[in-house]
Amino acid sequence: MIPVMPLRKTPIYLSLAFILSVVFAGCSDPLPAPKDYNLTCYAASYVKGVYRTENGGRSWFHLDLDQADLYAYFKRIYLDPRDKSTLYITTAGGGLFRMDLNSLTLKANNGFEGKTVSSVAFAPSSFFNEQGRGEMLAATNGSGILMAGKESDSWLLCNRGLVYREVNVLFSQGNLLLAGTAKDLFKWSQDSIEWVPASVGIQNKNILSLAADSEASILYAGSGAYDGERSFFQEIPCLYKGTDQGKTWTDCDEGIPDGTLGFTIAVNPARPERVYLGTSDGIYRSTDAGKNWSRMDEGLPKELNIFDITMARLPDGNDVFYAATEVGVYMTTDDEETRWVSRNYGLEPTAITSLLIVPD
């Protein structure tokens, strides 16, 4: 499920919030601002296309190429792990695009015209054990999952065993490949060469987000709106945790309000007990591998949709997190106490739907 646009109208609210923050600035000691870092990042804007920063978000510039085909779509951006100069851009209704960062060209991928493409993932071609299949997969709303063929710009259906074709998210790490759909979670079986259900213990099977620690020993699945039946007082968990490669799951949303949508999950690889969850109700952080969660909203507007969270470990040993929100980009460091700071200079005043940090 891709969040519905248009977004809330916020300019008046944000102006009032800014005035109040100035008036009451002396009433309490604010948390310190995080340290700035010179990082290369890309951001997808809802109104326009893709922006770039080379100083950690202190200033952004719109990439100097024709991106009109990307305007006014909810989109996500992915760095090709095989070629760090290539971005793939998924859109809600505009198809799939490939951006070459060297030549600054944008090309639509054939076969996706007019489709909602929700996610991209890369997996070893040995997973599929069939001739003519590549490593890149694209999830769609309606056509299921397609895989890049060996021929240029050719795509093949990869839906064997996939009962539901409205796919929200793909996740690949090591020998694990998962697909979250609007109705269930599936895992790719290398033995039977098909998708198999993998949601034992999950009550809300509308899976929007997937993440894992660096060893894929702990998995997390965030869910969207629940459309099943429930009793009057029953609460349906919005977040689940698995420790056996997705065979079974337990709920792990203590501290997160009922009905919250889990749009994105980020696990700190160096400190896997620290997990960030971007939701329809702001940002939550766990410091005990998902057992308990607390809202992490210092410096953020209230009632905020968080569409993406990404992080990087810096040479000085600090960990920096960036959040894509409905009112722009925010940054913080993964300290015990910290606050989010705006990093929006040069961006259009609109939602940022996806972020990525390019490693050095």
Features:
globular, mainly beta
Spell out the helices and strands N to C.
HEEEEEEEEEEEEEEEEEEEEEEEEEEEE
Low-confidence stretches are 6-27
Number of strands: 28
Tell the overall outline.
globular
| Mean model confidence by pLDDT | 89
Structural class from helices and strands? mainly beta
- Strand residue content: 35-45%
Give the helix/strand layout.
Blueprint: H1 11-23, E1 41-45, E2 50-53, E3 61-62, E4 75-79, E5 86-91, E6 96-100, E7 105-108, E8 117-122, E9 133-140, E10 145-149, E11 155-157, E12 167-173, E13 176-181, E14 185-189, E15 194-197, E16 207-212, E17 219-223, E18 239-242, E19 250-251, E20 262-267, E21 275-279, E22 282-286, E23 294-295, E24 306-313, E25 319-325, E26 328-333, E27 341-342, E28 352-357
Antiparallel strand pairs: 1-2, 1-28, 2-3, 4-5, 5-6, 6-7, 8-9, 9-10, 10-11, 12-13, 13-14, 14-15, 16-17, 17-18, 18-19, 20-21, 21-22, 22-23, 24-25, 25-26, 26-27
Please provide a written account of the structure.
It is a single chain. The protein is mainly β. 4% of the residues lie in helices and 39% in strands. The protein contains 1 helix and 28 strands. Strands 3-2-1-28 form a 4-stranded antiparallel β-sheet, with no helix packed on it. Strand 9 (133-140) and strand 10 (145-149) form a beta hairpin.
